[in-house]
Amino acid sequence: MSTSHEPATIDLERDRALTIVWDDDVVSRFGLEELRVNCPCAECRGLREQGAEVWPKPTSPQPLRAEGAELVGAWGISLTWNDGHSTGIYAWDVLRAWTEGDG
Ligand SMILES: [Zn+2]
């Protein structure tokens, strides 16, 4: 496991993006659609494994909005979406890995 980082600041733009400034001053900006499509909950993981769309579904309100965000312990953040979905917990190490994957 690589060195883990924690956010220093978290900024949610509810109709646009989640921006995290990490404790080593690296800045990550995640578009809401990227976060929603890659939702890490069991239900969405299952959909992706079947090759199905996680979002949008026919009933999904558009544009996508984050209605709220809540810290989960010391290790991640959960987002509540305007389609009612809120079971995904985005762990800091996952978000950080996405950042580094972007190069
Ligand atoms: Zn999900």
Topology, element by element:
Blueprint: E1 7-13, E2 17-22, E3 27-31, H1 32-37, H2 42-49, E4 66-72, E5 76-81, E6 89-91, H3 92-101
Antiparallel strand pairs: 1-2, 2-3, 4-5, 5-6
Write a compact overview of the structure shown:
Helix content is 23%, strand content 33%. It is built from three helices and six strands.
Low-confidence stretches: none
User: In percent, how much strand structure appears in the residues?
Assistant: 25-35%
Classify the helix fraction into a percent range: 10-25%
Strand order of the largest sheet: 1-2-3
Structural class: alpha+beta
- Supply the CATH architecture: 2-Layer Sandwich
**Main pleated sheet:** 3 strands, antiparallel
Q: Kindly report the average pLDDT value.
A: 94
H/E element sequence: EEEHHEEEH
What key phrases describe this protein's structure?
three-stranded antiparallel sheet, alpha+beta, 6 strands, NE0471 N-terminal domain-like, binds zinc ion
Write up what this structure looks like:
The protein is of the alpha+beta class. The protein has a single domain, classed as NE0471 N-terminal domain-like (2-Layer Sandwich). 23% of the residues lie in helices and 33% in strands. Strand 1 (7-13) and strand 2 form a beta hairpin. The longest helix is centred in the last third of the chain and has 10 residues, at 92-101. The mean pLDDT is 94. The site of zinc ion has 7 residues, from helix 2. Zinc ion is lined by residues 39, 41, 43-44, 85, 87-88.
